[in-house]
Amino acid sequence: MNVFRLAGDMTHLLSILLLLLKIYATKSCSGVSRKTQELYAIVFIFRYLDLFTDFISVYNTFMKVVFIASSLAIVWCMRFHPVVRRSYDRELDTFRYFFLVGASFALALIWHEKFSVQEVFWAFSIYLEAVAILPQLVLLQRSGNVDNLTGQYVFFLGAYRAFYILNWIYRYLTEPRFTRWIAGTSGVVQTALYADFFYYYFISWKNNSKLKLPA
Amino acid sequence: SDVVAEHDEL
Fold it and tell me: Where is the signal peptide (chain A) (predicted)?
């Protein structure tokens, strides 16, 4: 575990905590894409199937359980919480996300480390995670105004990806025969999707103004 | 196996 990987995991965790805090404190999920949250729940469940077969570390197991539980809790709140569900921007969150699931699974059938159930699902989860933010970005762009917590949520989620890239570069330079073709390629694609958002986030931060995305 | 052991990241 290097410092970049730890920073990546912590910003990832922080992003999820920020989202839970926003929903809990404001009893509102306005500005949050339920489709993105459902995709993340699928991502974590299919990637962490190895919880039952491989033990890596207490840290690893703990984080996996936290990611699965928190993503399911967010989806549950947005679907079933009597107050929270009323603020869901249903009419703005119309991204056709089954397309993303299908395309990710098809790609996983073609490109994987090994042709086994667990490995194909692992690759599927990597590809799906790379594009899972799209419904959220589309929702933010449609709603125009972004509240602070939601903006910070997306910012930290993007920071997590950027730190993982630094982590792979570091590992490539320090570990013999280190390669992560599937995760690395997907990670670069995923991080690139945030570029536009980052640009406007930094402008609003610099001007000390509310984050607004152009229509 | 080697392949699975590579998944040490989250």
Answer: 1-25
